[in-house]
Amino acid sequence: MAKVSAAFGRLFDAMAALAALTLFAMVVLVTADIVLRNLTRGGLVWANEISEYALYLITLLTAPWLLRRGQHIRLDLVLTMLPVRVAVLLEAASDVIGCAVCIVLVRYGFAMTYDSWRSGSITIKNLIFPEWWVLAPLPIAFALLAIEFVFRFHRMLEERALRREATSVS
């Protein structure tokens, strides 16, 4: 299990690096658009749309990496006030619930993507492309999140201690 977890950790690191490169490309694109608008009164009409899709993709690429590092959004104030054993149980319960929610979202994300593909839906803005292209990353990202929740739960069972990031408010 440790080797598989480490392999997924490397995958998540690569996804975060890809997200960083996407962010860099977005900054270059927006800057170029602004410069062109000021110099030529034209600009890149599709730059805002590409930026929107890039932000969406960056979010999906970094979510598993942030969860693995314990830097996801969490309310940990209560954990600092509870006995360690109870806090560990709450952490384990949150991993189980998080995994279950992600599995449900994988199922519905796949259904939405498949329905969009089957019906031939297209997105029409400045750019025109099949809608399923935007939907396809959703079930993949949530599947990776579900897998990370399993790894987190397994690591907690092995350590039987509160995670370091679980008490960041103290």
Describe the model.
The chain has one domain (2-167). 76% of the residues lie in helices and 4% in strands. It is built from six helices and two strands. The chain has helices spanning 2-40, 47-69, 77-81, 84-119, 132-135, 137-159; strands spanning 122-124, 128-130. The protein has a two-stranded antiparallel ribbon. Helix 2 packs parallel to helix 6 and helix 4 (84-119) packs antiparallel against helix 6 (137-159). The longest helix has 39 residues, at 2-40.
Short description:
By secondary structure, the protein is mainly α.
Topology:
Elements: H1 2-40, H2 47-69, H3 77-81, H4 84-119, E1 122-124, E2 128-130, H5 132-135, H6 137-159
Antiparallel strand pairs: 1-2
Helix pairs in contact: 1-2, 2-6, 4-6
The helix tally amounts to 6
Rg over CA atoms: 20 Å
The residue fraction in helices comes out at: over 70%
Q: Which secondary-structure class do the elements indicate?
A: mainly alpha
- Contiguous low-pLDDT stretches (5 residues minimum) are none
Principal-axes geometry comes out as: elongated
User: H/E element string?
Assistant: HHHHEEHH
Count of the domains:
1
Bin the strand percentage. under 5%
State the strand order across the main sheet: 1-2
Q: Count the beta strands.
A: 2
> Strand count, sense and closure of the main sheet?
2 strands, antiparallel
Mean pLDDT: 90
N-to-C span: 32 Å
